Amino acid sequence: MQKPNRLYYLITLQYLGFRYHGWQKQPDKPTVERMVTRTLRFVLGHHNFKVLAAGRTDARVSVNESVIELFLDDKAVALAQFLVDFNQNLPSDIRALAVRETTAQFNVIQHPKLKEYIYLFSHGEKFHPFCASLMVYMKTELDIALMQEAAVLFEGTKDFWSYAYKPNDTTDTVSTVIKCYLEPNTLFTANFFPEESFCFRVSGAGFKRHQVRLMMGMLFDLGMHKFTLDEFKETLDGSKKIHLSHIAPSSGLMLYKTELTY
């Protein structure tokens, strides 16, 4: 039931996921939701609120841009000052980018949205340890050209049964990948990054749990010549129900962008 005095806000958020056990609250584990909720309690001075995220992230997965909805059963906040106070009290690996009002008719989970994920990795010479929070090091030399050729084949509406984590008979595994490609990484740089690193980019309206990491795992297997391109193409036919087990490490994955569509 809608509360008569409830207020609704959308907060654009980003965070480094390396030290967190994902977004969702878990007993006795550091999660992003736990930190956000604690900070809101302090800044607002009460417990009369709840938050809802546009999507959950797994342990060690980072977010460059996502959206959470704040339901506030109290007086309205001054948006500019709230944003300042919220950021000053959040831990240094979480930042709010913007806050705005919304209405009771909006639901951040059900509302149509486009998401872009990226996956950062390098191969060859081992990278500086500081890179470990953002990218994955592959000690085996990879056939990048073959991986690039395969990446674009994920595009389109397909039955991604092989890229769904433990699907059952009721799991809807058909979805649309709008754009997918692998390129040299120029999005994130630092003086301790390897001279050459790579970025897998994929966008669509929604992804199943571990789907992007299973896609990346397949590209890694292709790059190591554990699969041929023809064998990879077979996995794009959901009717064949090919079980894939290589889930790429979570630390290289980032939700890069969340776009609410109107």
Structure description:
By secondary structure, the chain is an alpha+beta fold. It folds into 2 domains: 7-101, Alpha-Beta Plaits (2-Layer Sandwich), CATH 3.30.70; 113-260, Pseudouridine synthase I, catalytic domain, C-terminal subdomain (Alpha-Beta Plaits), CATH 3.30.70.660. It is built from 5 helices and 10 strands, in the order βαββαβββαβββααβ. The protein has helices spanning 32-44, 79-89, 144-151, 211-223, 229-234, and strands at 7-15, 49-53, 62-72, 94-101, 113-123, 136-138, 156-159, 174-184, 198-204, 253-260. Strands 1, 2, 3, 4, 5, 6, 7, 8, 9 and 10 form a 10-stranded mixed β-sheet that branches. A hairpin with an 8-residue loop joins strand 2 (49-53) and strand 3. Helix 1 (32-44) packs across helix 2 and helix 3 (144-151) runs antiparallel to helix 4 (211-223).
Helix and strand arrangement:
Layout: E1 7-15, H1 32-44, E2 49-53, E3 62-72, H2 79-89, E4 94-101, E5 113-123, E6 136-138, H3 144-151, E7 156-159, E8 174-184, E9 198-204, H4 211-223, H5 229-234, E10 253-260
Parallel strand pairs: 3-10, 5-6
Antiparallel strand pairs: 1-3, 1-4, 2-3, 5-9, 5-10, 7-8, 8-9
Helix pairs in contact: 1-2, 3-4
